[in-house]
């Protein structure tokens, strides 16, 4: 009987690589879901933040974009995969580091992601209200009603389940990619050199390092999709078992290549169109690059399309970040000693999210940038440093030790955290 079981196992192991060689629709859905979580509202500010540093820092950041984001998210995926079957990130932390550390990381994980969800709630309400007023020339409904309807609509997608969220995000990615391509191509006839004027001015090494130091967090978090990584890894382990690491790495690689190519084309098209002075003006006015371009060209097409693109971008990111925020909140509730049923827990979390997101979107606070910055160091620690620490300390991740990418990821994480702390201090 044991020999028969062993023979079956051997046949199964031999067949597994052949299964992995076939890319399927679900892999594509996850690839686009990862893209959708990462590429959102932050992308619309990236040309301003990245372009202000000048030509050479932007080129260096462009070269670092793929390894910075791919290796970090692969490390976090491997960390979740190292846990037991079906365990999400909060449970894997508890499994590897103990109950107290698990509770602390779960708390930090929630408070790193949840403020960003609030930011998207406010941004979505502002975008739709502005679109109704300025493009459609319709008086928007009361802010409390508008924000409630919008957030309730997104939570209706959430109630359909995780797979529905990922599928909805993957569908929304297509018009977003087309819109980014359209804008980037539309700007080509308007390229005037822009940032190339600074190419002949090679900065001093100290100035270059200082600029890169402060710009790296912008690049890192413009491509961040850590909130959905836990759900992604759990699904890959359920589907592919021992081969989950290989297939998830393939999906991550393709997703990051798509992100980097699309976003950098958009960024370079913008900075070749606008001068450094105009980028600085956009930053002073606290405008996204789309809003500034619409005002700059006075083009009705861009003026009409920009809010729609922003709506899709924010909605995608809201759904992706909701997965991470709800996962963290569920972990906090369970670790508090209360263990409601799965459906009851889902309803409690959804009701909490609806009330808080609605209240914040209605109040429209002006301190959103500070909230996002405060969450930044925590996200960097979870995304960059925790998986690298686990590789050194956790036996289940010992096979990943000794790779040069580990040192690179840890170094980028320390740079990102130190730069964010510095920005808060000055």
Automatic annotation (TrEMBL):
Gene Ontology CC terms? plasma membrane
Protein name (record): HAAAP family serine/threonine permease
Q: Which domain of life is it from?
A: Bacteria
State where the protein is found. Answer: Cell inner membrane
What is the reaction catalyzed? L-serine(in) + H(+)(in) = L-serine(out) + H(+)(out)
TM region positions:
30-48, 54-72, 104-124, 144-161, 173-191, 211-234, 255-274, 302-323, 344-361, 367-386, 407-425
Q: Which Pfam families match?
A: Trp_Tyr_perm
Tell me the lineage of the source organism. Answer: Bacteria, Pseudomonadati, Pseudomonadota, Gammaproteobacteria, Pseudomonadales
Alphabetically list the UniProt keywords: Amino-acid transport, Cell inner membrane, Cell membrane, Membrane, Symport, Transmembrane, Transmembrane helix, Transport
Species this protein is from: Pseudomonas khorasanensis
The membrane-topology field of this record reads:
Multi-pass membrane protein
User: Mainly resides where?
Assistant: membrane
Q: A Gene Ontology MF term for this entry?
A: amino acid transmembrane transporter activity
- State the InterPro entries in the record: Amino_acid_transport_2, Hydroxy_aa_transpt
């Amino acid at each position: 009987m044991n020999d028969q079981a062993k023979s079956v196992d051997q046949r199964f192991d031999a067949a597994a690589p052949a299964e992995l060689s076939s890319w399927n629709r679900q892999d594509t859905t996850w690839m686009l879901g990862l893209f959708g979580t990462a590429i959102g509202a932050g992308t619309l500010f990236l040309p301003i933040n990245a372009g202000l540093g000048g030509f050479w820092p932007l080129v260096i950041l462009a070269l670092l974009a793929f390894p910075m984001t791919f290796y970090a998210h692969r490390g976090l995926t491997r960390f979740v995969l190292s846990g037991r079957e079906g365990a999400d990130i909060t449970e894997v932390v508890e499994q590897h580091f103990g109950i107290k550390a698990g509770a602390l990381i779960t708390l930090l994980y929630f408070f790193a992601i949840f403020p960003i969800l609030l930011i998207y709630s406010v941004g979505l309400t502002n975008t739709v209200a502005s679109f109704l007023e300025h493009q459609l020339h319709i008086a928007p409904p009361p802010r409390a009603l508008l924000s409630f309807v919008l957030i309730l609509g997104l939570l209706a997608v959430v109630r359909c389940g995780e797979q529905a969220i990922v599928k909805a995000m993957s569908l929304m990615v297509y018009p977003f990619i087309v819109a980014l391509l359209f804008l980037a191509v539309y700007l080509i006839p308007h390229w005037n050199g822009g940032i190339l004027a600074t190419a002949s001015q090679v900065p001093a090494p100290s100035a270059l390092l200082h600029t890169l130091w402060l710009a790296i967090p912008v690049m890192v978090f413009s491509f961040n999709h850590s909130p959905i990584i836990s759900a992604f890894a759990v699904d890959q382990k359920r589907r592919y078992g021992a081969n989950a690491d290989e297939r998830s790495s393939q999906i991550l690689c393709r997703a990051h290549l798509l992100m980097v190519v699309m976003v950098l084309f958009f960024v370079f098209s913008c900075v070749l169109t606008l001068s450094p002075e105009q980028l600085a003006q956009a930053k002073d006015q606290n405008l996204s690059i789309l809003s500034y371009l619409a005002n700059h060209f006075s083009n009705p097409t861009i003026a009409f399309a920009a809010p729609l693109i922003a709506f899709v971008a924010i909605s995608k990111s809201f759904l992706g970040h909701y997965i991470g925020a709800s996962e963290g909140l569920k972990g906090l509730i369970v670790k508090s000693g209360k263990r409601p049923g799965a459906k009851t827990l889902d309803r409690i979390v959804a009701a909490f999210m609806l009330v808080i997101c609605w209240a914040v979107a209605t109040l429209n606070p002006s301190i959103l940038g500070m909230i996002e910055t405060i969450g930044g160091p925590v996200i960097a620690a979870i995304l960059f440093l925790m998986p690298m620490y686990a590789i050194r300390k956790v036996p289940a991740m010992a096979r990943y030790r000794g790779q040069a990418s580990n040192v690179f990821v840890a170094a980028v994480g320390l740079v990102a955290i130190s730069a964010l702390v510095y920005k808060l201090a000055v």
